[in-house]
Amino acid sequence: MPKQSTNMSGLQCLATENIWFDKHRYDEAEKCFYEGVNGPSTQQQQNDVNPILLDIAKSRQNIQQSLNGVKTALQQGKGRQQKRQHRNSSSHAGGDQELVSRMKSLELENQTLHKVVENMRAALQKLESRVAMLEKTPVLAAVPCAKAAPVQAAPVKQVKVENGGGDDDDDDDDIDLFGSDEEDEEAERLKQERLEAYAAKKAKKPTLIAKSSILLDVKPWDDETDMAKLEECVRSVQMDGLLWGASKLVPVGYGIKKLQINCVVEDDKVGTDILEEEITKFEDFVQSVDVAAFNKI
């Protein structure tokens, strides 16, 4: 029983004691005590600073920034002006060098053109002289003896004058003032022989045959067409002046291939129209024929 009464007295003491419930009041009192001893806190001092000083500091900072901006602007302007001057000077120098180089190139081109013109003039003079010689040569070769024959003078017979009236008529008969016609016939015969020999020699020269190289594109109906048989049908076309060459298969698309074959033809004997007509006769294999290339040989 005494122990229980002791516990009850302790609880009653705690119930009557209120220091913990008013702790904030004690903390505030302690704070005021220390502030009275040591003076106000630094935070309160900072809050009490005059706002005019802050405005003065801000204005000083703004002035300093504006001065720095003016300096940088002046420096940038000077730098730009120097760059422009440098560019102008370099552009003037480059322009002068370009003009000098272009003038030199024009002078060289002018010299080369003069040389070309002189060479062309010399070649033209040579051609004119050769044409003149060729124009004169056939006339001299055709009648070499026709000019030489008339030059030969007719032989003059010596006339002996003898006395006697009976022999005068006989002597007059023997005199030939214009010569005989045998010499003219001989000159004509020689002239004709020379002309015949010249014509025969000219006929023996081989004549130039004009030929052309043709590349044909032969297209089948579909991808199931036998291309070997198609090529065999194309090569079966034979005629005078036609010679078949190499061939190859060229893919067109969707598995279809066309036959590309080359041939050489004589222009006077074989034409492209005849070739197309002959090849398109194989209707089972050939759909169309086109001329891919045509070159003169």
Automatic annotation (TrEMBL):
Coiled coil: 103-137
Pfam family for this entry, one: EF1_GNE
Domain Elongation factor 1 beta central acidic region eukaryote: 177-202
UniProt keyword annotations, A-Z: Coiled coil, Elongation factor, Protein biosynthesis
Gene Ontology MF terms in the entry: guanyl-nucleotide exchange factor activity; translation elongation factor activity
Alphabetized InterPro entries for the sequence: eEF-1beta-like_sf (IPR036219), EF-1_beta_acid_region_euk (IPR018940), EF1B_bsu/dsu (IPR049720), EF1B_bsu/dsu_GNE (IPR014038), Transl_elong_EF1B/ribsomal_bS6 (IPR014717), Transl_elong_EF1B_B/D_CS (IPR001326)
Skewed-composition ranges (Basic residues): 80-89
Domain Translation elongation factor EF1B beta/delta subunit guanine nucleotide exchange: 211-297
Disordered: annotated span: 73-97, 157-185
Keyword Amino-acid biosynthesis applies: no
CDD domains in UniProt: EF1B
Family, similarity comment: Belongs to the EF-1-beta/EF-1-delta family.
Protein name, as recorded: Eukaryotic translation elongation factor 1 delta a (guanine nucleotide exchange protein)
